[in-house]
Amino acid sequence: MFDLNNSSQIPLNEQIVEQTKLMIAQGILLDGDPMPSVRDLSKSLLINQSTVQKAYNKLKEDGILLTKKGLGTFVSLDDKKIDLKKARLEKNLYDIFLKCRFYGIDFEKIKEIYEKSKEDFYDSGSNEPL
């Protein structure tokens, strides 16, 4: 399910967060799907439980996971939280486009970068942050 890179500069908990987002975006994980328990995931990945717990807490904070006492943790997409993150991302993108204009990066180069990002997005082995 997860492919962590121990030699990456990206902390393991962040890799779990980003790979979870990627699996949701790719349709591998769907709203309502159960997630492995913290204990089970830490055991299968051979990492500390606190690392997995930190990742799960971040995903809950981001409106992506929900823990139901006695039942487990599930993918549960909170549209309000996700919309807030989306709005912030759009603002950041706007700022980036202004900087591109300032530095003379033309629309063709932006499209090229966007197309490359689509290719990388579907590379499920990627550990890059979403």
TrEMBL record:
Q: Looking at the record's lineage, which domain of life comes first?
A: Bacteria
Offer one Pfam family short name for this entry: GntR
Q: Which InterPro entries match?
A: Tscrpt_reg_HTH_GntR (IPR000524), WH-like_DNA-bd_sf (IPR036388), WH_DNA-bd_sf (IPR036390)
Presence of the UniProt keyword Chaperone in the record: no
Keywords (A to Z) from UniProt? DNA-binding, Transcription, Transcription regulation
Question: Which molecular function GO terms apply here?
Answer: DNA binding; DNA-binding transcription factor activity
Question: Which ranges carry the HTH gntR-type domain?
Answer: 10-78
Signal peptide as annotated in the record: none
The keyword DNA-binding is assigned to this record: yes
Name of the molecule in the record = Transcriptional regulator, GntR family
Q: Which organism does this sequence originate in?
A: Anaerococcus hydrogenalis ACS-025-V-Sch4
